[in-house]
Specification:
3 strands
Length: about 400
């Protein structure tokens, strides 16, 4: 029997209704830097389209309000998100003057609130359904495929963020590769160095406090300050050590950004390694010892596999953290999506800021879902239990 209201649904319903009736749906600018003009949903779309989108959002708000099966709510959220994607592209085409290449049409607060409300509804439903890791990965791939289909269809070509991308397509992908290199490269380096350091800290208790406290101090240094502190020593190494400059070490650029991200990554990896190994049951250790395993065998075949989910949680934290922090690397010539963010801030061009911000958010979101699914798959802990 249907019960209402749903507490989370009430919040989502209010958000959707506020976005629909109070907030502007689109912003029109004569060019990329002038002040924008807000347009309500019925001014930003043809009347039929505006009425249809308003009806879809109203239905979604009503469904969110009710306490009904999560699958129905998820279906309503996904249909509404698809409709929102279609109509925002139509609004951009509708508002763009014929033959005008200077006008900029961008989503306003109403669109973003609708998107946030529907995305929250979908996320809440997925969390309640508790899908298996493989299903979560499948949903992520379907979302990526849907986004790629919309982008390649030309539906969003008149949106300002797509126009900014079109003018910088080659640079965009160069900076995207640099951003991924910084985030994942520093993660790999921190994992290679951090896991052995974590094992050593776990085994040698007197060393543990000193290592973790030192890494905690690094975490307290603001990212921009740490980038700046690394300029002088790396510049000195590049100038005095033969061959250092040829392999990319320099006071500015990718080297200080990579080193800073590496230093920030060490604490989650080391601390989670220590916590994971400390959490292995003493009974399991005694059972492994009773089977005649050596200390090295117990560590590699029992303790480490059982600690792997906790270690992977640390790696997940590092990856999402590095994807965000890599944006700051643009301030010292490190490249990445931050190039567009700081160019946009300097030019007062918010669409250019979004060109750097949106991919960063999507990349972090996809990384979090992927690693969460890997952690929940229990592949490593199951292997450890079998060995025990």
């Amino acid at each position: 029997m249907t019960k209402w209201p749903d507490k989370v649904g009430v919040l989502i319903s209010c958000l959707l209704l506020y976005a629909l009736f109070v907030s502007p749906f689109m912003t029109f600018r004569a060019n990329r830097i002038v002040q924008g003009e807000a347009r309500a949903i019925f001014d930003a779309l043809p009347s039929v389209s505006a009425t249809l989108l308003a009806a879809i959002i109203l239905v979604a708000a009503f469904i969110a309000f009710l306490r009904i099966p999560a699958r129905l709510k998820l279906a309503a959220a996904l249909v509404s998100l698809a409709a929102l994607a279609v109509f925002v592209g139509q609004a951009a085409s509708f508002l763009t003057p014929e033959g005008n290449g200077f006008a900029r049409i961008s989503p306003a607060s109403g669109f973003w609130l609708m998107f946030a409300g529907l995305a929250l509804l979908a996320t809440d439903c997925i969390a309640r359904l508790q899908p298996k890791p493989a299903v979560r990965i499948l949903l992520l791939l379907m979302a990526i495929a849907a986004l790629a289909a919309v982008l390649t269809s030309g539906l969003w070509n008149d949106l300002s963020i797509i126009r900014e991308y079109t003018a910088r397509a080659d640079i965009f992908w160069t900076e995207a590769v640099r951003h991924v290199e910084l985030a994942i490269g520093s993660l790999i380096a921190a994992t290679v160095a951090g896991i052995p350091l974590g094992i050593l800290s776990y085994k040698v208790e007197r060393l543990r406090a000193g290592v973790l406290n030192s890494l905690n101090i690094v975490q307290t240094i603001p990212s921009i300050a740490l980038f700046g502190l690394l300029i002088a020593p790396l510049g000195w190494i590049a100038a005095t050590v033969p061959g250092a400059a040829r392999i990319g070490i320099a006071g500015i650029g990718m080297a200080p950004a990579f080193v800073a991200l590496f230093l920030y990554s060490l604490l989650p990896v080391v601390s989670n390694t220590v916590v994971g190994l400390s959490g292995v049951s003493q009974t399991v250790r005694e059972a492994a010892r009773g089977l005649g395993m050596t200390p090295v065998q117990r560590l590699l075949r029992v303790e480490f596999p059982l600690a792997m989910p906790v270690i992977l949680t640390g790696i997940r934290i590092v990856l999402v953290q590095n994807i965000g922090l890599a944006t700051i690397a643009a301030l010292i010539g490190g490249g990445g999506f931050g190039v567009f963010v700081f160019q946009g801030i300097g030019q007062t061009a918010m669409d250019l800021v979004l060109l750097g911000t949106v991919p960063t958010v999507l990349l972090g979101f996809a990384a979090a879902i992927t690693l969460d699914a890997l952690i929940d798959s229990n592949l490593f802990s199951a292997g450890g239990k079998q060995q025990a």
